[in-house]
Amino acid sequence: MGIRPALPGDEQAIARICVLTGDRGADASGMFGDDRAIADVYALPYLYGPGCFALVWDEGGSAVGYVVGTDDTRAFQDWFVADWWPSRPTREVQTEADRWLLPAALDPERMLTDLVDEYPAHLHIDLLPEAQGRGAGRALIEAAVEGLRERGVPGAHLVAAKANAGAQAFYPRVGFVPVSEDHSSVTFARRTSGG
């Protein structure tokens, strides 16, 4: 039981975890016309993109959680729009959730906030319910932050839905502070040194 780098064989497990936690921490199965769409936006590109990393929490042969991210949000966003998203299956809007996910994936400015200069890295972390509350999330975050520190990256940010009460409580406990918000989400940031 513990953290290891993601392997090519983990792609299906990572996609599954993303779907099972994709509705503000709850199961998003059936929300999208294609369940895999959410993983193609928020999880799987981090196995392949520039400056990316992927760590999994493994409890005996299968990933039950992950932290993925990139050390360079600008380079990642350019690659996502130019290379990754066009290589994914064509998807049509079929559900209410598709109405926000699919246009967002096409938006070349989606991740380019004012924060990327000060906090150039960004992360996504998801754990299945059976892996929550036992230190896995904290361990994954600390491993990701240490990896970014070793790369010389000054800080990381992430976004959580306001409706995701678990995430809103978790991120401050692992050193992330709220730095901005809108009607539906809060952006948290953390320096890679000084905890």
UniProtKB/TrEMBL annotation:
Pfam families: Acetyltransf_1
Protein name per its UniProtKB record: GNAT family N-acetyltransferase
Key words, A-Z: Acyltransferase, Transferase
Any GO MF annotation of the entry: acyltransferase activity
Enzyme Commission number: 2.3.1.-
Species name: Demequina muriae
Gene3D superfamilies: 3.40.630.30
Coiled-coil positions: none
